[in-house]
Amino acid sequence: MAQRTEPAGLKLRLAAAQRLKSVLAGEHFAPLDAGEMADGRDRALANRLVTTALRRHGQINVMLAELLEKGMPAKSGTFEAVLRLSLAQLVFLPDLGAHSALFLAVEAVKRDSKARHLAGLMNAVLRRAQSNSARYGLMDEALLLPEHLAQAWTAAYGADAVSRFAETLVDGAPLDLTLRDDDAALVDALGAERLIADSVRIENRDRPVEALPGYDEGRWWVQDVASALPARLVGLDAGSTVLDLCAAPGGKTAQLVKAGYKVTALDSDAMRLARLKGNMARLGYAPKVVEADAATFDPATPFDGVLLDAPCSATGTFRRHPEVLWSRSAQDIAGRVRLQRALIANAFRCLAPGGTLIYCVCSLEQAEGEDQVRWALEALPGLSLLPVAVAELPGLSEAVTSDGLVRTHPAMTPGSGNPGMDGFFVARFRRTG
Questions:
Q1: Catalytic residue numbers?
Q2: Which DSSP state fits 4?
Q3: Going by C-beta distance under 8 Å and a sequence separation of 6 or more, which residues neighbour residue 146?
Q4: What pTM does this model have?
Q5: Which end of the chain is more exposed for a tag (fewer CB within 10 A), N or C?
């Protein structure tokens, strides 16, 4: 009996649907890697489908409300994920062809025992979407952002900035690197542009990160230009002891080691610490690594500096993780605010008198940034704000507020490069007693 041959493209469609289904269920998005899909072209296409569906989530919501008169079927396996991928292809990726979107969607749900009874509905919905694809393609970009976030961000950053947020969401994030050494030849080999300090940017690449020049030799590490700001603001003498709380995967740890500090990198997650150790080994750095809870860690000797990159809503990372736009509620943020306060309090306890504390979050929410500064100054006697001066961030003066805090967002332009960077908040304190 002849072996059944699967239609071309079905395997990657099924993998993409499973990945999108997990994200819709609340998991953090991670691109399919070589271990999950060996063929580089298939992997790139699968990831393109998933990221497009995630970036266009708000617009696809509106389409679904129109196309599914009775709403999304309950307990329908991968039906929703397959449908979202197919709508993303039909409307926003026309270069991939409409026929494959319809055919592979129907074939994909037929392979799912929980969804195969919906194959006819899938076909009917997508044919209707195809006839309306031109209209859907002109949907308002304001739909890309949840209304509550758009309103809050407009109040905080202005309407022009929020309009640019939507554009950067669709564009996605380029690859930013921090260099171990200033090497003009390496920058040229990478095809990168310089941003600020030792950060460079690769706008377009045709190979995995691990295949880029200098990776095996540990000559750089991946780090968004905004994420590289906090460690540069520690401002202590070389040889000072610095505790990096919530350190994994280690970008800021590497910066602190590079600056000449005696670094202790702490994290409570053993798997993330293993990744940090691997990154440090590749770079040739050897910080002290501690597995412990950052909220209760009690060092024998206080540190000259503490850098706390606290767990947060991560709304500032939406260019790479668009799912955060739709998975963060007011209750979620309130829970993170409580955790951040516990971590700030313990970071203060770990700090020697006269020492410097850097608090940062990759969040655009004022509750996790400016509001936390006000809380810390009231709740922790002996802690004072150590304002950041504009001169400390050449090429990014717009990120320094009148209070000496640092607030970046995706509409900002680092240096003279192309616009776009993560949303980050940074505050610097000193322990006076």
A1: 362
A2: P
A3: 58, 325, 326
A4: 0.94
A5: N
- Here the tokens at position 120 are 């006819």
Go through the domains of the chain in sequence order and give each one's CATH number: 10-139 (1.10.940.10), 222-431 (3.40.50.150)
**Is 247 within any annotated ligand binding site?**
yes
- What is the rounded distance in angstroms from the CA atom of residue 365 to the CA atom of residue 187? 34
Q: How many CA atoms lie within 13 A of 53 on its CB side?
A: 28
Burial 18-45 (b: 16+ CB within 10 A, else e): bbbbebbeeeebeebeeeebeeeebbbb
Structure letter (DSSP) for residue 404:
S
Element (H, E) at 354: strand 351-361
CB 212 within 8 A of CB 277: no
Give the model confidence (pLDDT) of 404-428 as tens digits: 999 999 999 998 777 899 999 999 9
**For 284-335, how does the pLDDT look when each residue is reduced to its tens digit (9 = 90+)?**
999 999 999 999 999 999 999 999 999 999 999 999 999 999 999 889 999 9
Tokens 């929980």 belong to residue? 114
Residue 174: name the closest of 152, 188, 193, 196 by CA: 193
Distance between CA atoms of 323 and 111, rounded to whole angstroms?
A: 26
Report whether 246 belongs to an annotated binding site: yes
User: Does 250 appear as a known binding residue?
Assistant: yes
Provide Rg for the chain, Cα atoms: 23
Strands (E) in 161-274, as ranges, are 175-179, 193-194, 199-202, 220-222, 241-245, 262-267
| Six token digits for residue 196 | 């600020």
> Is 252 annotated as a binding-site member?
yes
Residue in the structure block whose two tokens are 């995706």: 410
